[in-house]
Write a structure and sequence with these properties.
With about 500 residues, this protein is mostly beta strands. It contains seven helices and 36 strands.
Length: about 500
């Protein structure tokens, strides 16, 4: 080929070896390479070299898990990736895409929901724990079996909390039991342990296999040893009841846990078991999130009495120093998202119905959005948008730079969980009332059940998923069930005979 024949490249009044010329061109961006390609035939070959466009593709974050030999034209690959990203952004802004309601336990009420990379876990008042993979649009959710002894013939305890990461699913029950499942090895739990009292908080490491639970005045950390056998790695005794619990991500060695118990924030690690990160008497912590090196939490101050506004505090986990105090609000901060936010930014929700984004370098608010009628219950942001959920059941999507609302969706019950990535969004409206009056009739009365049960939505904004947009969940049956059910419609097998 012509490229193989080029040994030297003319650079103004000198000739350079091809490899050296390629090294110089590596410092150019897409626009400059396009201009250089118009100079001469030799420069065109150089400017369209696969090495340059593969590097550009990697620098922009596309196709990171590929090697240079996987594609024949990296310039075209980069163009396709950018076009797909633009389409996704347009679809997000205009709410173009498929939305589906994940099936529910008939007659039972949703207790907790969590998700990781499009895999959703939900726990119900029946004690059932269900799992969905929304990436495949296969909504036949396997039920994860709880490991009950022979004497557990009665009704199963409610699920208190559920958590999931890329390899594990965990559920904590009302009776103090914790079950851990591997996503690789079927529906039976791989580990189970028991607390004597009700569990107040559950945390699962974002990667790896570490589970932390808080019950009474005890925080227990469980993880497998080198041979894969689960054991209690740490038990911490603390002075107050835990409200929030997080495992610090990306920790080498023994796990590190951050626990907020009323007005004290503990940094729990093996070498320093009772370390207090923050404590001001009478100023309870109202929300908590941690990243690899920092912890952000909301503090409810004395307010009007001493003219102290409520604030978000940012602590360094290595030095235990308070880095920043942000916010100046009369309302309590109800949620904070540090781990999933862009670098040097944090997004918060407040009882005063506002969503605020703070710049951690300047401690100042970049934007304040008047969002919800009853206070904000869940938030997440990326480099251009914010998604917020409210106590009244509203999910709002915002353009962060413009400070404008793009669209909103409403469902009954508060939004307790939301998660999104570039192409999908998971939201969960979870009822506060787990045993509503007349609950005994919810099994038989679909209208009452519809009102009380809670709901999980999965949105898909990528263009190649629109084929299922018009297909209702009821029609995506596995044909395993004896009857289909959708409120007042009872479908008999085979469904096609209706």
């Amino acid at each position: 080929s012509f490229q193989n024949e080029i040994n030297e490249v003319p650079f103004f009044d000198i000739q350079l070896p091809y490899e050296l010329a390629l090294k110089i061109f590596q410092y150019l961006g897409k626009t400059e390479l396009g201009r250089c390609a118009q100079v001469s035939r030799t420069w065109k070959v150089l400017a369209e070299d696969e090495v340059l466009w593969y590097r550009l593709c990697q620098q922009e974050g596309y196709l990171l898990d590929t090697s240079i030999s996987d594609r024949s034209c990296w310039k075209l690959a980069l163009k396709d990736c950018r076009a797909r990203e633009r389409t996704l952004k347009t679809n997000w802004k205009n709410r173009i895409g498929a939305v589906s309601q994940l099936p529910y336990e008939l007659g039972k009420i949703l207790c907790d929901v969590h998700s990781c990379d499009g895999v959703v876990i939900a726990g119900y008042t029946s004690g059932a724990v269900r799992l969905w993979d929304t990436r495949t649009w296969d909504y036949t959710a396997p039920i994860l079996e709880a490991m009950h002894g022979p004497g557990d013939a009665g009704p199963q305890p409610h699920v208190s909390f559920v958590r999931i990461n890329s390899s594990l699913a965990v559920a904590a029950y009302e009776d103090g039991t914790v079950s851990v499942w591997s996503l690789m090895f079927g529906r039976e739990p791989i580990h189970r342990y028991q607390h004597n009292q009700r569990i107040q908080a559950l945390a699962l490491g974002s990667e790896g296999a570490t589970v932390a639970t808080a019950s009474g005045f005890e925080v227990k950390v469980e993880s497998p040893n080198d041979r894969g056998f689960w054991q209690t790695t740490e038990t911490f005794e603390i002075q107050k009841l835990v409200n929030f619990l997080n495992l610090v991500p990306d920790v080498t060695g023994s796990p590190v846990t951050v626990a907020a118990a009323e007005d004290i924030v503990y940094l729990l690690k093996a070498e320093d078991p009772g370390k207090i990160l923050h404590s001001v008497y009478g100023q309870p912590v109202t929300c908590l999130d941690v990243s690899a090196h920092e912890a952000a939490f909301g503090v409810k101050t004395f307010g009007w009495l001493l003219n102290e506004p409520n604030q978000i505090l940012l602590y360094n986990l290595e030095t235990s120093q308070c880095l920043k105090k942000m916010g100046n609000s009369i309302g309590d901060f109800t949620c904070v998202n540090l781990q999933n936010s862009p670098p040097n930014m944090v997004v918060t929700g407040n009882k005063d119905r506002r969503v605020r984004v703070f710049d951690l370098r300047k401690s100042e608010s970049l934007c304040s959005l008047y969002a919800h009628q009853l206070g904000v219950s869940a938030v997440q942001m990326d480099d251009w948008k914010i998604v917020s959920g409210g106590e009244e059941g509203l999910v709002c999507v915002w353009d962060q730079r413009m400070g404008t609302k793009l669209w909103e969706m409403h469902a009954r019950h508060p939004v307790r969980h939301l998660w999104f990535n570039s192409h999908s969004l998971i939201t969960a409206n979870i009822p506060d009332e787990k045993t509503p009056r007349g609950a005994s009739i919810t099994d038989d009365d679909p209208a009452v059940h519809c009102k009380h049960r809670g709901i999980i939505y999965a949105y898909e904004f990528s263009v190649d998923q629109l084929a299922v947009e018009s297909v209702l969940p009821i029609c995506r049956s596995s044909y395993d069930e004896v009857t289909g059910y959708n409120y007042n419609i009872g479908l008999a097998v085979p469904y096609d005979n209706i």
